[in-house]
Structure formats: C-alpha cells, structure tokens
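Notes from the pairing session

We agreed to fold both candidates in a single pass and log them together. This is the raw record for the first candidate, unedited. Please don't reformat it; downstream parsing expects exactly this layout.

Candidate A
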Amino acid sequence: MDAHTLGVLLLGSGALAVVVWVLHKLGKALAGIAEALAAAAVVFLALWWLCKGVFWVVAQIVMHPRTSLTVVAVAAWCYWLGWLSLVVTLTVVASGLASWRWFHLVSYDQWAGRVLRTWWQKWAIYMPKLPEWLHACGLSVKDDAIPVDVTVTLVGRKKVSREQRPAGVRVPKVKRVRSGPSWDEVQVQLVPGQKPEDFDDAARALASARKVSRCQVREIAPNVVSIDFQRRNLLAAPVPCPEIGERAVDLRRVWSGRTEYGQDWHVPLHGSGSHTLVAGASGAGKNSMMWCPLVSIAPAIRDGLVRVTGIDPKGMELAYGRGIFHRYAVTPKDALAVLDDLVAAMDARKAEFAGRVRNVPISAENPLELVEFDEIGALTKYTDRKTREQIVERVALLTTQGRALGFTVRGYVQEPTKDTVPVRELFPRRICLRVTSKSHVGMVLGDQAYERGAWANRIAETEAGVGYVWGEGLREPLRVRAGWVPDDTVKALEAFVTGRIASIGGAAA
C-alpha cells in the first residue's frame, strides 16, 4: 500500500468520525427537543383536560344549580357529620313532607311538590329515557353522507366506489323540565334539519312511548318545542255547574267548566271570539256547553242585560227551559222569522250608534242578544233550498256584523261538514266534542289540529262534555270539560230568570 492510498484512508476515516460525532450530537439535541415537546404536550393536554373539566363542572352548576348544590351539601354533610346523621335527617324531612301532603295537598304541591316532582321526573325519566324515545320515534338526525367517486371508462362503464365510515346520530337536547299536578312539560332544542311539525306528527308515538293517554307539542321558539305529557286526567269526573244566585257577571269571561290543567275555563259571550260553533256526536255533551254559560250569567239574563234567543229544530232541548228565551223558534219558518227580527234589530242598532262608538256598550236598553242555535245543521242543510239559503244568509250577517253591535251566535251541530254548516269559518271560536271520525277534528278545529293533540275521536262515551276548544287567544287546542247541568237546575234557572223565586241553589254534579 503506497503513501497516497494510506493518506486517503486516514482522511476518509477522520471525515467519517466527524460525521458520526456530528450525528451523535444532533441526535442528542433532537432527543432533548423531542423530550421537551413531549413534556410540553403532556402539560398542555393535562391543562386542557383540567380546564375542560372545570368548565363542565361550572356549566353543570349553572345549568342545574339545585342538583349541584344538593350533591355538594350531601358530600359536605357526610364528610363533616357522617352518613348516619344524614339518614336520620332525611327520614325526618320525608316524614314531615308526607304529613304536609296528607293534611294540606294544595299548599304542599305549590311550595314543595312541584319542585320535587320536577327534579325526579327530569333525572329519573326524561334525561335518561327521552333521547331513546325520540330516536325510536324518528326524531333524530342521522349523518349518513357518504362520498361517492365515479369513474367513466372509454367503453362507457362506470365504476362506483364508496368509502364506508360510521354514521353519527344527533338527538334533540333536553333544555328544561317542568312537572305539574297532571302534566309534564319537556322543552327540547331541535337539531339542524328538524322542524316543529315533525314532532306534531310523532305525538301519538311519543304518548305510547311515555305510556300516557295524551301528548301535545307546542312551539316555544323556531328551534325549541315543548313536549307535554299528560300523566293524570283531571277531567275524568263530571264538573259541577255553579250555583244559581247573585254574582258579578263578566260577559267577556263567563265560567263554563274546567280545563285539563285543573283551571277554570271561561268563554266570551260578548266581544272578540264570542261567536262559537260546537260540534259533537249524539250524547257528546253539547247540552252542557249550552246550559252551563247560561247558568253562570243568570243575574244578567234576569236583569235584562242579556236576551237569549233559542232556535230548537228538535223542539225538545231548549223547550225544557222555555221561559229563559226572549225569542223561540222550532220550525224553519219560525226560525227564519226570528233571524229576520234579529237582523232588523242589528240594523237599527247600527244606525243608532254608527260614527259614535266602535263597540256598543251593553245595557238594559241595548242588551246582549245571545242566539242559541241548537242542531244548526237541520236548518242549514235538511230543509227546502230557499229557506235554507235565507237562513244561511241571516246567520252570516249576524256572525260577520254582530260582534261590535252586541249580537252573538252560538251554534251546535252533529255533522260538521262544509255542506252541513256552510258558514262554519265565520265562527272564530270552535269546540270539538266527541266525534265519530278523525276527519271531523280537522273540519272543526282546522288543519293539523289532530296532529297537535286534539284527539276528539278518542274521547270516551262516558266523558260527556269533554272536548277541545280552539280560537282567538289559543295557539294550541285546549282540552276542557263543560259544567254538567241537570234537569232540576234548568228549571231552577227558568224560575230565577222569570222572577218566580229570588234565588235557588244549582244542583251539584
């Protein structure tokens, strides 16, 4: 080996040693940097999860303050005083609440029952179970968008390839739960792609999932709905009518029965929304809808502030209290004469007050003319054409012009079709009692009424007077039950109005 070759080898060995040394130093530096980055990542992730955990705890405390404070109080009690004292205290409190509920249910439910029931229903039923019910009823949104690649060859063939990936399901979020004596109101926030009408269509399925007889959906906001579940039927028992006697009468809010929420139900007999159409099958309780408001305004009828006109094609129902009515008709000819008299009185009142007032004040000189038209379909369809057209025309005049002049029409019908009652759209307030067909609900209360919970075709035959009301001031159909008026109360009302007695107590149902 010559000197030149030896020099090259030594030079190459030195260069290789330098490269190895540089790589060694660089590796150590990179390892240090990697360790530093790993440590920083661990610290960052730890801080991230810590901040996220703190944010979640704060959010839970803000969103559910009562539950959070209760958990903290229980934990502190167990830590400082022991679990045995907690058990003893809870036993004493439970016994006190039970005694309170036993002796005074109204005040208990007002101050404690609603809070405890809401808390229990929310965490034991709706938070864990409602998402499952919504998904089962088709009220979830599935993200099943799958990308598709299409390749077209020169010979016209297409090759389609799909990339499979798991699809996510988004369910409306429970925002609020409020539980009353008979209803649970659960507000949920809709997910993108849903609309409130989707929940209307699923009301029956949701009621079955909750194992209740009725479910109603109300729109709270464009992306929030309230799903209301009826746990108890407060209208199962008959509602007693009021006693006949001296009382203050407000013709714009006349007591007529109870609502499904346990509150008094009032109807207007004068002013906005006073014209009313009541539809129901035979035995559904139309008589209660008619007589109960008349019992409530008995002093006004006696004092001449209200004059009641009765049109009774059957000649039976209103005839039992004939003395109550200022005008009375049975035959189509007599009914037309009565309606002509009312239209003439309305025209005279219009001529007297036109340009002076916008609404005629009710007084003994200008009383409220209340028309009770029983079985209105018998005269608007089942009579000769000429008389039928004239009756329909008079009713249309009274319903379109009579509100401000103090004329109110209340009609009752079994078959609510357009052919039977061609002027049904002129009644701003409508009540649907038990009917024989699901389609009748929409005819009376309007489109989508059945989907919103007005299941009038499912009312039992034993629930006479139960129905659904819709009209001015009501966004959703309201379930009500009219006060039941027995025969002796009708006779007592007739005697009170005609002045044969000073006052008499109405029989309770």
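Candidate B (folded immediately after A)
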Amino acid sequence: MKTLSTLTFTNSYCDLPDSLGTRVTPQPLDNPFLVHFNPLTAEKLELASITALEPTFVDIFSGKATLAGFSPLAMKYCGHQFGQYNPDLGDGRGLLLGEVITSAGAKWDLHLKGSGKTPYSRMGDGRAVLRSSIREYLASAAMEGLGISTTHALAIIGSETQVVREKIETAAILIRVAESHLRFGHFEYLFYSGQHVELQQLADYVIEQHFSELTTTSSSYAEMFKQICHRTATMIAAWQAVGFAHGVMNTDNMSILGLTFDYGPFGFIDDYDPHYICNHSDYSGRYAFDQQPSIALWNLSALGYALTSLINKTDIDHGLEHYQHQLQQQYSHNMRQKLGLTLTDDVDSILFLDLFQLLQHHHVDYTLFFRTLSYITVTDLPHSSSLFNELFQCTTELNKWLERYQQRVLLEPNDSQRLAIMQQHNPKYILRNYLAQQAIERAQQGDYKLIDKLMTVLARPFDEHEDAEILAQLPPHWGKHLEISCSS
C-alpha cells in the first residue's frame, strides 16, 4: 500500500481541448478536520488507510496544501435539466485533482466536491455542506454494497466555514473517486456549441480510456454509444429491483459508464409506491421511481442526438433499442433472483404483477417484505402469513398470493438453493432516509458513531449483523415523510 506522495498520477483529461475545463485552485476551508474515511475506497487506490491520520491528508484535501501530480481542473459540460436544455453548467463546486494509476493499470479520478468557486459556479458559493456530503458518502457505499455501479467516496472533510442554504450550515468537502467523471452533458456541450472536432476528440478519448477493446474507426462511435446504452440499462434495472430513486436524472448527472452519479435528493422506497417521488422539488413527478426507465431512454436519446456528427440515425436507433431490450432482460433477471426463481414459467409475469399490486395496495415495506420471504421454506409458505403481520394489516390477499407462489416454487429443483439466492439478492439493510438524517444530525454535533455503524452494514447489506438489528427495522412514521431537495 502507498502514501499520498507515492501514488502514481496522470492528468489525461487535461490533454483534451481547453474548452472542456478551466484550471482552478481549491479554496481552503476554515479549520478543516477529518469527519470520516473509507478504507474500502482507499484500497481501490492502493492507499494505506493510516495516511488519513496524518495532518497532511486534511491539509491536501481541504485546499490548504497541494500534492505533486495534482492538476486541479473544473470540467465544463451542459445538459438537460428537468427536460430543458441549460448551456451554463459545469463543475460549479468540484475539481478533478488528477487520475491515480494503480499497479494493475486501473485509473481512478480523484475529485473534490465542495472546494470553492469556479467559472461555472454561476450564483453559487462553490461549497458543499456537511449534510449533503454525508448523504453522498453513505449512498455511494450503500450502492457498492448492493453491487450497483456507482462512484465512490474516500473521505469527508468538515470545517467551521459557514454557508447559507435554507439556514446557516457548515461547509464540507467530499473526496469522490470514480473510473470517470464524464457525463452525457460533456458531449451535449460540444455538440450544441458547434465544437464537432473537439467532440470527436472526446469520443476518441472515451474509447481509448474506457472502451479500449474498440478500435477508433467510424463504426467504433456507434459501438461506444451502444455500450453506454447497455451500461445505463444495467444500472437502471438494478435501481428498479432494489427500490432506489435517484431524484435528479438530468443529462448532466448521467455517467457514460453507467455509474450512479451525483447523489442529491435520492431515496430508497419504504412503503412500496411505484409513483414515489424522492425530490420534493420535482413538482411534476418527472423523476418519479416508475419514470426512471423512460427518463434514461430520453437521456440516451439526447446523447445520441449530440453524437449525430459521428453516428447516423440508424445506429442511434439501434443503440436505443438495445437499451430497452437489455433493461427488460436485466430487470427480469434481477426480479427472478429476488424471488429465487431459476426456471421460467408462463405464470411468472402474472405472479410478479399481482405481487406489486398487493404491495402497493397495502403500503408494504418493499425491502422487509422480500427479506422476510427469503427465510420461508416452500412447505411453510401457505402458513407463513403471521410472519408478515408487521407489514400487512390484513393478510387475506397475501395468503392467496403465497399459495400461488408455493405452487410456482414447487417447480424449482432445489428449495435450499432458492432461499440462498433470495438472501443474496434481497438486502436486509438499505440506506433509508431517516437513518441518513440521524447520522447527519449526530455528525453535526461531532458524533460520527452512526456513520461508522452504517458504513459497516452497508458494505455487507445481505449479512445478518446481529448487533445492528435496529437498523433493519421498519422506519418510524416521521422517517417516511422527510422532504429532500437538491439544496446542498
């Protein structure tokens, strides 16, 4: 393992056209201190965890000092926000410090979120607050634990710097780590500003850095688009299966690598509601839970349009069709795993549909229902409704569905295998909004123990964690009605 000074850095993004970013120096925080450090993310960088205990760690990532190899740059991009094109976007509070190259040749972006003003801050102060930094820190760990493609977070740096949001809060910096910070909006920016030569250079860069199995030919751009569609479909299918709502699926928040990106007013479903809106600023419900598959398709269409100087309409349509096919196939696969089904049968689609209607009608906790079901043997299924008393006020309809599910499960070759599959794909622990809120409130008082506990269970959400049962319980009533916005 390495120290910060022995990490190997490159700055390949800085070799792209100057219009794609601006060199910026981080603005120091007042009296910075380490809030939390993620050793699992450090391992990806081959960075020794003990490094976080050194004073230079906080100095370097709070803007008080720098490191050889850093070349801080604020990225320029644009995008469609709630369906409306906005040309005035970019890293308004973020900086790409550099790219760490591991001994295995992997490349990881090292990025600060909340490091001060940039040319793209518009009317903002360029800061992130402790509240939003903790939410993203926990969310990225939760998604990684669930096996969903995501950006990562190395640490949170707190401070005494005051910023004004709905109220006065303290500023923080999140150290984000990702395979790439390139977004759909990078291509949109170059397309709409008429920089078609630069757009091709960016596409060549993406192929070289992330799709190296492709050769840079005219057909490679169409294949690149298809792979972006494929990765996006896989990500969205995973979101839908686990009950995750992103909240702000603007094109500038969409990763070209299918990474869950820019955690803002996200939420995991408590009581099952396909129309769940996690962002209270989303008045029209554009980014509601059940709209995410179609919004991703809309965003991919916008990306395809931005690539029309490189690929033709037929190839764009083919990529979009591939997205829809991959989404359907992957989502079906994910949901079958949640019910432990290894075979296919004609009754399956109706069985799923009726289950979703049942959960919605009775306002049943999505995560706890599937986790409870994953413990029940096939012989016990018709007599197991009492196990769901905490989730259902009336179990009459549930009993009928359980009997049908039993008949379907009897077609499976091995019931022990079914239960094992279900317990591997139905988490016991998710990052519920009220848990994140409790962690935030305690951290604002200098108590980071709940962050510690959450990071432990979220890293292995399918395990039992007997000392953390309270974190797997039904949320309190107030915890289901927290209002989360884009404010950070």
